[in-house]
């Protein structure tokens, strides 16, 4: 871990009088894949929108590559951080190559030249190769499958040459084959290019298996932060998700594995307190 | 995949470059051809070589050896309207392409935000009520129409803006509402107009280059050229926005600023065109689609090619307008509608089969 690529300090986010996140603090270093998990409504999307500078926090600072994000213009942010959103519009008039080459936008200065420089072309090609979609280069975007399209978007993100990769639920709607492909790809990119990745995930086992560090959000705060083993304890899962779970370790995948047993029997927060769970 | 089958990306990009270059050259040559051809046509036929010679003479390159009458016909009567038709056609087409890109809607065109109705109100105020004649004299219609068009888009933009952002759907709705309202205002004015004023406003609304003069070029040319260059400068941003505003923003595009700039340039072009020539429809709607299908959707080629195609189309339409019922003139807006509407329906049916707009 060389530098802190992302530093979140005392973050509070909300609109008007409604608070969505309070006192969020964490660091993400290069070489790390950090997962943001939590139940629906815990504030995962809001946190992501704040990190990616879509939302402005009511308090606190987001630092990207050690620079205050408020002092960066949009192009500079795009050169530092690339976002793979949950959904991307498909345009049948553009090819895979066209989409990946869009990733060079934040690096291009000449407004009037229609041509990408040789360097831009090379980076576009290298990005497609690293992801494994160069054979789809000339296909139009409506002619590739959902899983392939997601990989094309990752290639585009790579073409931005970011220090930080942000992925918002990259594996929802994908079959298990593409799920594994994409998660392994993210790990390879992070290691190979010594960058960081922040991934919002809804599946706990995926999160446990592919992330170095997890941030569990619950009730507008960080409930727990640490390695998957430290964060995904039976108590934490109970508190955050209101379910009873079994946590095992699998030597085969060298990761913990969570089996959800049942929801907690409709107990209210007060009942849970009486049971000793606060 | 055999190595012989595999195209490297560099090759395909070069292929595209070549295709676009050829397309542009062909369009430019066609434009020149159409200009010469149109000068030739009319009650008095002027030989193409004479036309070229007259232009060269004006540029100070060769000596004149034709009659004064010939020169008057070429320079004073035909050239201005042909050149202005080219500019307005180019401007409307490129503005239409930019609006389609901005709204990501194939039905978008330059008048979609109510500018044509705003210009109509301005023109009607002059023709029916005589407002502004004292101050602007012969230019009153143009000035008032221009102000009407720009005033409309300003109001529409302000109405649509919430918390510093202008969602395109809101902009569209505000534009439609405003356009409808202003159209009602024009109708009211038609109702109270004298017979002569009524005829004049109706004719103005149908669009025409009959009144175009050489002096008009001094105003129309810079305004439209600024708009064309300005829009082209944002080709890359328009490309990025086709993937969604969210994605464009993550790529580094200052989406709200870019929207504003594109609207300003498109408005400048549209207001200039409509204030000078009345409401000429279908150029801004159809030409971009033709170019997209035949050449490509990358705005770096779509914008300039649409401009050239629009220029060619409108010159031909105007030439038809003034020759088909000679010596009478049919308003050019009628010609563009007659050609445009059936083509639009054809496009729709074709898209129904492929199930996508583009």
UniProtKB/TrEMBL annotation, chain A:
Keywords from the UniProt entry: ATP-binding, Nucleotide-binding, Translocase, Transport
InterPro entries: AAA+_ATPase, ABC_transporter-like_ATP-bd, ABC_transporter-like_CS, P-loop_NTPase
Database matches in PROSITE patterns: ABC_TRANSPORTER_1, ABC_TRANSPORTER_2
Pfam families according to UniProt: ABC_tran
Residue ranges occupied by any ABC transporter domain in the UniProt entry: 6-244
GO terms assigned for molecular function: ATP binding; ATP hydrolysis activity
UniProt-recorded name of the protein: ABC transporter ATP-binding protein
